[in-house]
Amino acid sequence: MKKRMNIVMVALLTILASCSTNYQMVTRVHKDGTVEKEVWALADSAFLAGDSNHNPFLFRLGKDWEVEELDSCIETDFFGETGKLNLKACKTRNGLEGMDFFSAKEKWMRPLAVPEEKLEKHFRWFYTYYTYTCDFQEIKDKGPIPMDKYLSKAEQLFLLQGKADGYAGMNGVELINSLEDTEQRFLEWFYHTQFEMSYGIVEHFLKKTPAELTYLSRLEKDKEEIFRSDGNRKKEMECSPEYICRLLDKRYQTAVFGNLYKDYARQMEQLFEEKCIATQLFEYQIKFELSMPGELLSSNTVSAEDGMLVWKVDAYRVLADNYRLQAESRVMNIWAFVLTGLLLAVALILFIPTR
What we know:
By secondary structure, the protein is α+β, with helices and mostly antiparallel strands. The protein folds into two domains: about 10-140 and about 280-335, no CATH class; about 170-280, no CATH class. It is built from nine helices and eleven strands. The chain has helices spanning about 1-20, 45-50, 110-115, 155-160, 170-205, 215-230, 240-250, 255-275, 335-350, and strands at about 20-30, 35-40, 65-80, 80-95, 115-125, 125-135, 285-290, 295-300, 305, 310-315, 325-330. A seven-stranded mixed beta sheet has the order 3-4-2-1-7-10-9, with no helix packed on it. Strands 5-6-11-8 form a four-stranded antiparallel beta sheet. A hairpin with a 4-residue loop joins strand 1 (about 20-30) and strand 2. The longest helix has about 35 residues, at about 170-205. This is Transmembrane protein. It comes from Phocaeicola massiliensis B84634 = Timone 84634 = DSM 17679 = JCM 13223. Keywords: Membrane, Signal, Transmembrane, Transmembrane helix.
């Protein structure tokens, strides 16, 4: 079963990666506390022709954004894949007064579109220290089934953010086995969430058919048993309203639910799409790049390109918790060293007796 679920997981990741929309977000922190933000995207011909409804970004392009269109696409490496970009949006803020760069186009886009950024600057005589944090917010609308029902918090963070704090002392083989089991339960949770939503949609439209209302009480009473006996729940990723209707027809030896789907197919699928709107976030990935002033002291990434710190940000990383990017640097206050040296020299002259 583990092998089967791993194949499904790989297939899911491949599909999501193949249809990814790539963004490059470049953040430059300067010594005076100003922060420059550049966001790159691939715009279509409609937007380039002036149709703002085809804005390729996840955020609104207000008047304070400077937008630059390139004559031709440039290619950028997105974690092993090549992505094309032809549009750049730029904005500069005083990071010490706040960094409200973004406003999401749609509410469901907020986890990836509107990170909460903070810059702190601390003077320490010989050095000035800079601390930058950027929190991409957790996806709150994950459906009716809590992920905690299938995975502990430590398992969620290990699988989705790579945090292995709860796995200290394990060797590689043990980590692989644990991860396989976690993957399987993650997929079961995903399927259960879709089952619950689709089941509720079928119940909703059944209420529009007075002649068949007698089935409503049976659906409510039998739901858990129907879910447990569903042979697809450990083999498939999707559970649509159409599939639920076929499942219920088979369960009750009737054609009621198949006919219900024929009558309301478009409305059912539209409602299902609305309930699953947050899954569209899995179509996007962000290559987040950061430069800090002076000497880098620490960061929570091990990736760097051309002097820039690099993080990958996507919906997986914000599915279980906020995803924090952080870095700290310091800039030498040369004048402080010079002044200290002069004061020491004066002190030596004044207090050391001459012969």
